[in-house]
Design brief:
By secondary structure, the protein is of the alpha/beta class. A six-stranded parallel sheet has the order 2-1-3-4-5-6, with helices on both faces. Strand 3, helix 3 and strand 4 form a beta-alpha-beta unit. The longest helix has 15 residues. The chain is globular. It starts with a strand and ends in a 6-residue tail after the last helix.
Length: 253
């Protein structure tokens, strides 16, 4: 059976922000890839974004078409919080889950979940900022090597101009992320946690704490920033492929 990788992005991001990562993952694993937009973002920007992560997960589960094979979630930041809830709500739909640079209340304090140095910048972005300036700022915060991604930020600017995320959606997503508390015990599916030592947005201690508390595998990149799939996509793909290959789970769930 062909594995299906379901990709979930974070705050104000959409499926298009995965860039070439999805096709590269599919080529490396022989799987299929489906990138899901959160309500209020991307192809679903006309929908009202919920205020809570649990509701975001319900919307995403309903948007996923049937698949004759195992489904594995691979999710970043807020998207990873949604993935945790998805696994908690419907573990029978999921054969595994990869959580990238995420955090959760109950496992980490708020000042680690979003580094305080970025509070003023986040508020200015949500209050209104020139599109090009905002996307450049996002890159500078989320990448450890932004100078290498000039073409990527140009694409981000084009995405933001063609499918803008409303201020209301951004505030709702931020509220949902800030209020989210993960369960004390892990969801009953195989889990892998990936973290970036160079994450300047979310303290990597959040991923370490989650992996330690749940006693699940953790792999930490030595230099990448918050957007780990952007900074070193091949490393992510290698870690995911090795982990999935070790699961021996090839039956549909």
């Amino acid at each position: 059976m062909t594995v299906r990788w379901v990709l979930l992005r974070g705050l104000t991001r959409e499926a298009a922000h995965w860039g070439s990562f999805g096709p590269e993952l599919a080529a490396a694993t022989g799987g299929a890839v489906a990138a899901i937009d959160l309500p209020g973002s991307g192809a679903r920007r006309g929908e009202t974004a919920p205020w809570h992560v649990a509701a975001l997960a319900q919307h995403c589960r309903q948007a996923l078409p049937p698949h004759d094979g195992p489904t594995v979630l691979l999710a970043l930041s807020l998207g990873a919080m949604v993935a945790i809830e998805w696994c908690r709500q419907a573990p029978g739909q999921v054969a595994g889950c990869v959580l990238v640079n995420t955090s959760a209340g109950g496992h980490s304090p708020f000042w680690r979940r979003l580094r305080p140095v970025h509070y003023p910048t986040v508020v200015r972005m949500l209050a209104g900022m020139d599109t090009a300036m905002r996307e450049q700022r996002i890159l500078s915060i989320t990448s450890a090597r932004p100078q290498q991604h000039a073409q990527e930020v140009a694409r981000w600017i084009a995405i933001a101009r063609s499918r803008p995320v409303s201020a209301g959606t951004a505030w709702r997503q931020l509220w949902a992320a800030a209020r989210y508390r993960a369960p004390a015990s892990p969801p009953p599916v195989p889990l892998l946690v990936l973290a970036s030592a160079g994450d300047r947005l979310v303290d990597p201690a959040c991923s370490r704490g989650l992996a330690r508390g749940w006693q699940v595998p953790l792999r930490e990149h030595p230099w990448a920033g918050h957007d780990l799939p952007l900074d070193d996509p091949q490393w992510v793909i290698e870690q995911v492929a090795q982990w999935w290959g070790a699961q021996g789970r090839h039956a549909p769930r």
